[in-house]
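Forum > Structural Biology > Help requests

Title: Can anyone predict the 3D structure of Carbohydrate kinase PfkB domain-containing protein?

Hi all, first post here. I have the sequence for Carbohydrate kinase PfkB domain-containing protein but no way to get a structure on my laptop. I'd be grateful if someone could post the structure tokens.
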Amino acid sequence: MGRVFVMGYLSIDRVRGPDGVAREQPGGAALYAALGARAVGAETALLAAAGEDWPEAWDTEAQRLGVDLSQRIRRAGPTRRARLDYAADGTRDSAHHAEAAWWERTAALAPPLPPGPLAPDDVLVLCPMPSGQASRALDAAGPARAVVDTSEAFARREPEALRALLPRLFLFAPSREEIALLGPLSGCAVVEKRGAEGLALFPADGAAPRRFPPPPVAVVDPTGAGDATVGAIAGGLANGQDLDAALGAAVAIGARAVTAQGPAALGFQP
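Reply #1:
Sure, ran it for you. Structure tokens for Carbohydrate kinase PfkB domain-containing protein below:
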């Protein structure tokens, strides 16, 4: 059995739903991915940098759920802040991607690299991050399998550099909106996140795509569901599942993640 190392960012989210109510909650792709990996029972470590305003209570809760925070560090200044506004049709506006402060904190809070070469059975999850940072993480991780996500912010800013990483990955997991920004993808297996339609796997060998629909659920807050799905895929692989089995379990975790506010559906009670 391997371990999951989740490398990425934490954030303090302000989420406004279709009801117009804004709520502050713990967030960041790294937090949701780590919780997704734990939801399938994988041993999971979080590699992230928090700012001075990240609540200690949130660390305590992550540890209660079994996330190893020994490599979660603090840096001077504030944690990244995300502003997410959801419309009634499910579309999302991520206004923070256009803010200079968000990009400044992205540079200042670069997560720590993996602690030396990882084992072949381990899985490194790279949450959305600049391509250069991802490349350094892949160098440090050695033979571990890499499951990599991105975001519209990075896909729009550096599509060629992200595509160049693909031959080094075990699995790339963008959304269909990100694929539209990145262009044609090749060099590794690709799983496309399709929101309420689940996942579509495009094998590296060019075999026919395989689809993994989610169970029907009532959506309360879709924040972090894709990140939790990616973490759960990595957790299944670390637990010894083949890719199809890992995807089948992960799509159910992603569906569960939308059924409560913030990460509460994954057991996190801030």
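The first helix runs from residue 29 to 39. The two ends are 30 Å apart (CA to CA).
Shout if anything looks off.
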